[in-house]
Amino acid sequence: MGRWPVLKHIARGGLVVLGVGGLAWMFWAVGWPAIDANLAAIGGWFGALVGLYLLAQLAFVLGWWVVIDPGSRPSSFLGLFGVYLAGDAVNYLVPSANLAGEPVKAHLLRHTVGFGRALTSIAIHKHAELLAQWLFLCGGMVVCLVQYDLPLAAELAAAVVIGGLGGVLFFMTWALRKGTFASLLRRLLGWRPLVARLKVFQPSAEALDARIQAFYKTQGSWFFAATGWCLVGWCGGLLETYLILHLLSPHEGWTTAVAVETLAMVLNNLFLFIPARLGSAEGVRVGVFALLGLPTAQGVAYGIARRGRELIWTLPGLVVLLRKHAGRLVRPDLPPLASKGLHP
Predict the structure, then answer these.
(1) How far apart are CA 127 and CA 105, in angstroms?
(2) Mind listing the pLDDT tens digit for each residue in 122-176?
(3) Which residue spans within 127-253 are E strands per DSSP?
(4) Radius of gyration of the chain from Cα atoms?
(5) Dihedral angle at the C-alpha atoms of 188, 194, 197, 200, nearest 10 degrees?
(6) 233 closest CA partner among 130, 91, 104, 119
(7) What average pLDDT does the segment 237-256 reach?
(8) pLDDT tens profile 35-66
(9) Contact between 262 and 143 (Cβ < 8 Å)
(10) Exposed, middle or buried: residue 74 (CB in 10 Å: 0-12, 13-18, 19+)?
(11) By the 8 A CB rule, do 275 and 295 touch?
(12) DSSP assignments along 107-140, one per residue
């Protein structure tokens, strides 16, 4: 193992240790009795919250389903759901800006729809998902700015994250319509040591670009349908937040839920480099509760409930991964694009 991978593993291990330490300090500072009392208020409703999140996951999968070529869609929607959960589990556990799981999805779908069509649908779905998230955050921040007097630092952080996300969305929109994969490969081919290895992928990259461009030209309405479904999926977290708030503090309504969900999502995007955002997600959620004048003990209980639901929803995806290619959870042995082909 080279020096860089070793340093990367050490850094990730250090971040995990810091996250666990942060959680321990948070529990000590707030006090377990107060946290326990708020967890008791959630009580048996936790199982219902976990089950309710099925609707959000189904919405995201429907957003993916509608952008897959109708002639090659998997015969089993349940099978596609399993593939989505597998990729989602990897995205959750691996710090990669929610990208590590996308090759996993393509790998699992290669025998069903073809590796090329799988990559095409995944790229378009990711585009729709990003647009839906950006729209959700923009709408949520309007509510926050109108209803709450937030500190300047929080407003600036939100502006940076939402502006950065908008920039990424703009570039992604331009790149997918222009044809980004073949162009990127041509740039890499300018580096002589890579020519022999990468030149064989040029036809496949061009085919992938052509397929994506054809989708936006002839089936653009399905992209907006996918965006709508993904927006419903993002709203699943909002519904969950509202219900938990109702259990912890019944007088709080939808405005508070929108503020909590939006600010937590915005600030958590600053910590994508931390594995599973361990510690940082809980700290952000407690900080958001404090910003909005809510008890920190409620923020810790909310963070624990949210983390518990997230962990439970990784289990089905991990089961799919273990069944289909155990031992290759994070870095699957992807088939060569040229030999397996981007064509069906």
Answers:
(1) 15
(2) 999 999 999 999 999 999 999 999 999 888 988 898 999 999 999 999 999 988 8
(3) none
(4) 21
(5) 40
(6) 130
(7) 94
(8) 889 999 998 899 999 999 999 999 999 999 99
(9) yes
(10) middle
(11) no
(12) HHHTTTT-HHHHHHHHHHHHHHHHHHHHHHHHHH
Q: Which two tokens stand for residue 149?
A: 């007097």
Residue 79, phi then psi, degrees to nearest 5: -65, -40
325 pLDDT above the threshold of 90: no
Please state the three-class secondary structure of 244-262 as a single string.
HHHHHCCCCCHHHHHHHHH
Here the tokens at position 77 are: 């929607």
C-alpha angle 29/148/169, rounded to 5°?
95
Looking at the chain, the number of H-run helices and the number of E-run strands are: 15, 0
Domain boundaries, the chain: 3-340
Residue with tokens 């399993």: 82
Read off the pTM: 0.84
Q: If pLDDT is split at 50, 70 and 90, which confidence band does 337 have?
A: very low
308 is written with which tokens? 């518990």
Residues 318 and 182: beta-carbon distance below 8 Å: no
Q: Which of 235, 185, 238, 176 is nearest to 209 (CA)?
A: 176
Distances (CA, A) of 61 to 57, 97, 121, 135, 330: 6, 19, 11, 19, 21
E strands present in 241-318: none
Q: DSSP readout, 65-84?
A: HTTS-GGG--S-HHHHHHHH
Q: CA–CA separation, 124 vs 341, rounded Å?
A: 19
What length is written for the chain?
Answer: 344
Q: How far is it, in rounded angstroms, from Cα 228 to Cα 256?
A: 23
Q: How far is CA 191 from the centre of its chain?
A: 33
